[in-house]
Amino acid sequence: MLEGIIQNVRERVPLIHCITNYVTVNDVANILLACGGSPIMADDQQEVEEITSICAGLDINIGTLNSRTISSMLLAGKQANRLGHITVLDPVGAGASQLRTNTAKSLLEEVKFTVIRGNSSEIKTIAAGKGNTQGVDANELDAITEQNLPQAVEFATKLSESTGSTIAITGAIDLVCDTTQAYVIRNGHPVMSKITGTGCMLTGVIAAYCAANSDRVTEATVAAIAAMGLCGELAYQKICETNGGTSSFRTYLIDAMSKMEDDILKGGAKIEVYTR
Amino acid sequence: MLEGIIQNVRERVPLIHCITNYVTVNDVANILLACGGSPIMADDQQEVEEITSICAGLDINIGTLNSRTISSMLLAGKQANRLGHITVLDPVGAGASQLRTNTAKSLLEEVKFTVIRGNSSEIKTIAAGKGNTQGVDANELDAITEQNLPQAVEFATKLSESTGSTIAITGAIDLVCDTTQAYVIRNGHPVMSKITGTGCMLTGVIAAYCAANSDRVTEATVAAIAAMGLCGELAYQKICETNGGTSSFRTYLIDAMSKMEDDILKGGAKIEVYTR
Amino acid sequence: MLEGIIQNVRERVPLIHCITNYVTVNDVANILLACGGSPIMADDQQEVEEITSICAGLDINIGTLNSRTISSMLLAGKQANRLGHITVLDPVGAGASQLRTNTAKSLLEEVKFTVIRGNSSEIKTIAAGKGNTQGVDANELDAITEQNLPQAVEFATKLSESTGSTIAITGAIDLVCDTTQAYVIRNGHPVMSKITGTGCMLTGVIAAYCAANSDRVTEATVAAIAAMGLCGELAYQKICETNGGTSSFRTYLIDAMSKMEDDILKGGAKIEVYTR
């Protein structure tokens, strides 16, 4: 199912326009390069349409929003839509403030996204128009568990129907749904939540994987999530061997992504096709 | 004296709202996670009051200021005061430009800070309303030495009295004073000044330690400074073992913070209660 | 020819004012410290003239431009010119958007730069007033090769004549020209293009090397490029030994710069004086 997805990224080197927060922007750029893509960051309204035009994909991430960048996100998103480019939304902290919730809402009204990726709290905010986000991490009540998986699949499928987007809800258990398919991914490691930016980085990787595999974006999203989770597992193994901490973990995570290939992913991916 | 301070951080996971510069923001987020807290960065006036309301502490850092973020700092600071939250000021480069000096002054007039942390030059600028800052490092004339320690304690105590804040002056020798207590900390390593962000990271850690130990903020500040210095010592040891340079040092510093516990701190802290 | 250049940087610790993009700003600050300089980042028009006045050099990098920072670049550049400071321009992505192309043009009209460093596509954009930039990497057509080296030298020499700047075109082969001299540098490693910021970091290092060696800026530029390339080679060697990936490469690159000395550079530099 995931054959050749990573190979395509490495051969096609998709250029990804990122309008993203300044907290994790360096990590996003580096993991995009590591996974086989190429990043370009530009957030001024005077250039975003031009920049997005020369790219294959657009990654919009609403962390550290301001009014200047919101306009740019809308302009870039519409331009990407006009050109039929891959568009990915990361609604960081939707639900934590009206500004973020409303911006996510505006973006969804005016831009069609290929994929929306967030934690369960952010995705629920998007679905509900109201939120229960604590900070930028999903609060516990909202997390996907083995018990509430059927409800989560139903919820995500409906959201996919209403938005036309592939929905990716990530956390201890990851879920990817479009209107007809659902996948559960069980890769990853808890230390991933002890560094900033794993979500932002993942969204960047999803954009690159989808841009290089635009004929199978749901599968590309699944592959990106499994690859990222597997990198987390490999990085955890390496900090155990070297007695490292969370910053070494970050380094090894990106290191692992720079070496990720289809065969490695195939050997380590824990993907389940969810049967309704 | 420092018993349980770190344990409290790891158990309570204080959410810290950071309005900070874009140079070291990623390091601040990562060390906040490493020390047991949780970061959220938001600097737009449309959301800072809401964001700070869901947090336990506010970290204001005036590096890379602009007029947009200055307003946000004032709004967030006042809101944090209304809610009785921990507020920490890092007056990066106060004295290097009128903008920074005046912003520090405005912040001190309109916001009550739990802790103010800077190098000796920045803190003197705050006290004097005029400065002698070279870049963002304390110039040598201003540095605290064994010889001028009594004068420094007197100076910091007076500043604590006039501001109502715990004053932390960091450098080769670190000093923490409130109106009744003074502590001298002799942890740390000179290589800490060869990476960017050790000061910004420390201020973030102080915010988290204080937010999780709000009944003893001066002690929490001392613990944070000693912990950071000890991490610097451990990181230096590790670059010697691995033949690493300054970037590895940065990685190992955050690594060490991610493993810091009360017992490790107790074993390595070099804290002196200063008796006047 | 390069004798004492690095020693001068380490002894004089030039303070470099950077107005640079938020993607790689942390790397730029850290490599400036690693190479022996000291960074200060400030981009608000209310303070840039003051800040640049206390510095020895100014590094202007047009990645992630916006209208606020463009004004600041012009103000800082003119002030640096008035004071006779070293000024270095990195026209990131010139040619990728009108905003970037026009900003580079305005800067060149209003500010005299000591050095302009970019990839071949960016430098050609500057020369031509039109561009063929794909993203922020030079497209293949434009790259300097052994075959087109004579044409490249002629091109760069003419640009040096018209701008009064030392011209540095970097890529697999690096070229530095002023009106009378031309140098070809063959250090570096392809993995350098797999992390973000090698160009931005190099420009920062050039600013520090020139500021500490203002009587021989072309040689200082050559030294900076060779040093950076050599660090890339050493970092590559280290990831091979440790089975690391691209993020470890970034760490080792800055590590190597923190240990760079004149003797190491002399032993590893691959510099050819180009004879016309």
From TrEMBL, chains A, B, C:
Alphabetized GO MF terms: hydroxyethylthiazole kinase activity
Keyword Metal-binding: yes
Record key words, sorted: ATP-binding, Kinase, Magnesium, Metal-binding, Nucleotide-binding, Thiamine biosynthesis, Transferase
Coiled-coil portions: none
Binding site for ATP: 117, 170
Pathway listed: Cofactor biosynthesis; thiamine diphosphate biosynthesis; 4-methyl-5-(2-phosphoethyl)-thiazole from 5-(2-hydroxyethyl)-4-methylthiazole: step 1/1
Family: Belongs to the Thz kinase family.
Protein name: Hydroxyethylthiazole kinase
